[in-house]
Write a structure and sequence with these properties.
single chain, 78% helix
């Protein structure tokens, strides 16, 4: 039986239409107060976490915690910050609102949870500006690592390309320079190596760059590079080929390392984003539940005060 039916007295008219309340169901004062309190608690805890986190990092070798440990600790602390601030702000929102008279218990519960959710949402908007730089850094870590992979792929010929562009601004572009070099390769590789030191180095750089783009250096190009290395260094053909293979392997290892770093940063960014979204959802639930708890305790206190005063004469 509803509250309205409970208050019906014998002989009273029951055909009177209920009057709609002119007061809004939203009390912005407690919502704003709870949001401000939650934002303040968030900033305090973030500064505390930053101070603790700096103690885990040291420029001295062997004295810092691992990157994985620091990352996991930071993620856990962000979750704790979100939950504590949401609980505190939601509880204040529920305790500070005025008592709703002649409102069904279910409606009071719904309004309290809605007020807690709005307080959490407002506090999240307030704090979003302070967390924007951190989230941007996490989201851009994967892109930066991918850019490093691309730089590593072109590290073999980047400097030579710049040198070639400085010395010959009218020559062919880098996309066609490799094929031009292939057409103009001399029969005697030693003559090429001894005639023009800078041109030979630039040509090798363009070959390495083309190999980095294609994923491998053809055997003919390897033999040509080995011939130039042999003529320049006095090594035998076999030793020169071994040196060429060693350098090419170092380039491939650098590419693989950069790709591994990019993949690790991507996974870390994805994990941080998932944990952050889950933490926000749980924070919203905690704020709503805390507001319902605070509102119920406030109504109970009001009822106790009313009972202690006794009936009005």
């Amino acid at each position: 039986m509803s509250l309205a039916e409970d208050r019906v007295t014998p002989g009273a008219r029951t055909d009177v239409m209920p009057v709609e309340s002119s007061k809004s169901a939203i009390a912005w004062g407690p919502i704003i107060g709870g949001a401000v309190a939650a934002s303040g608690i968030t900033l305090i805890l973030l500064l505390l976490g930053s101070g603790v986190g700096l103690t885990m990092v040291s420029p001295w070798s062997g004295e810092s915690s691992s990157a994985a440990t620091v990352g996991v600790t930071a993620a856990i602390w962000l979750v704790v910050v979100q939950w504590l601030s949401s609980a505190f702000g939601g509880y204040l929102t529920g305790r500070l609102r005025t008592k709703w008279a002649a409102i069904h218990t279910d409606e009071v519960f719904f309004r309290d949870t809605a007020h807690g959710f709005l307080s959490w949402a407002l506090a999240t908007v307030f704090v979003a500006g302070f967390l924007a730089s951190s989230l941007t850094s996490l989201a851009g870590a994967g892109a930066n690592a991918a850019g490093q992979a691309a730089m590593a792929a072109g590290v073999a010929g980047g400097a030579a390309a710049a040198s070639a562009s400085d010395t010959d601004t009218t020559g062919p572009s880098m996309s066609t320079a490799y094929f031009t070099d292939a057409l103009l390769r001399p029969q005697n590789i030693a003559d090429r190596a001894n005639a023009d030191n800078g041109a030979a180095a630039a040509e090798i750089s363009r070959i390495l760059l083309q190999g980095a783009v294609n994923g491998s250096v053809p055997d003919g190009d390897k033999a040509y590079i080995a011939g130039i290395v042999s003529a320049r260094t006095g090594l035998s053909e076999a030793d020169a080929r071994t040196r060429v293979d060693t350098v090419l392997k170092q380039i491939d290892d650098a590419k693989v390392a950069a790709q591994a770093a990019a993949d690790k940063a991507r996974k870390a960014a994805a994990t941080s984003a998932l944990i952050g979204s889950l933490s926000l959802l749980v924070g919203a639930f905690i704020a709503a539940a805390a507001a319902a708890l605070g509102g119920r305790q406030r109504d109970e206190e009001e009822d106790l005060v009313a009972v202690s005063r006794g009936p009005l004469v």
